Amino acid sequence: MSWDLLAVALMVGAANWAFRALPILMRMDRMAVGGWLGRFLSSTGSAAIATLFVASILPALTPDLARLAPVLTGTAAVLATWAALRSVVLATLAGAVTHGLTVWLLG
Amino acid sequence: MNRLLVTRVQSHALSSRSGFAQPPRTVDRVRSPRYLSAPMTRTRPPFVDGLIASLPIVLGYFPIAFSFGVAATRAGFSQIDAFALSLVIYAGASQFLALALLSSGAPVLVVAFTLIAMNLRHVLYGPALMRQAGDQAGNQAGDDAGRRHAWAWAWGLTDEVFGQALGALARGQRFSQAYMFGLGLGAYASWVSGTVVGAYAGGGALEGWPALNAGLGFMLPALFLALLLSILSRRQLPVIAVAGLATVAGTLALSATSGILLGMLAGAVAGTMRR
User: Fold this and answer.
1) Comparing C-alpha atoms, which of B209, B65, B271, B131 is closest to residue A33?
2) Is ipTM strictly over 0.90?
3) What does the mean pLDDT of chain B come to?
4) Domain ranges of chain B
5) Which residue of B112, B216, B272 is in closest CB contact with A36?
6) Domain assignments of chain A as residue spans, ordered by start
């Protein structure tokens, strides 16, 4: 193993642990309950999920109908399964299976 | 970990030691029709609930980590190197970028600070999660029991694990450290094992199965959409709309990483300004 790679891995890994754990251990969420920071943190979750969905779907959006069709059918499957079952796990799996099946059917 | 950035890229009462007491399931049955036909009591440990909830993440991570393992060996790194990067860094986009920078001969400190900057958004996840848990539990989320083992389970707070945990809280599930351990462990194991398999299998293993490859590749967008549906409410609409638009604008004008950071900040600021 290269020492450069090990040094980078240890520095970045330590920073990642600090970013994920220290704000919880330091009770950053209690610093301004009811204040602007509280509202900011309450909104961060919804904003993050919306952001991550948009960021993950953007590369799949294309004018090419043959490549767009699996995305549309997969998305429709997630919406339909969520509407029927209210289950995140099942909706996700249904979307992925439908997407894969569409790719298979379109050859 | 973010699929876009790497470009190809879910009771019983809990002891106070492990977090917050699970509410009576009758509450959930009132809230959600899906519990109406459920048994009166559940004995499944929250850790197992967490593992089950990690399933979509597990299925989504594995092929991405597999790709990372392949890319690492193609870039001249050993299987042990690829394994170490996934085990120690555990942030997909950063890992792919690490390969590019290290193999181009960039200085170690430049590489490290570039990768650290990419993951700064994770600072918001823990407080946002604990805030949601606190709101739900009448602002008791700050007690020591709910955070005692955060030094360990917080390591697993990736984008997808955070999203899944927040979605569970938004659906009425009480915060539980055991659940967080299960959720995080499933995702982490998938990421590390996918890397190892990819590093040893080499390129082209999934290329013979295009439909399977495509379905697995759609797992993370499908998960994010399902999570978005689970938190969708009239109150959250402005936040969601602003975050989505800012992400598109930032991605098109700057970069995918900038788009994500801008989207989160713009959505959170929109939420801060409402009364």
Assistant:
1) B131
2) no
3) 77
4) 16-231, 233-275
5) B272
6) 1-59, 61-107
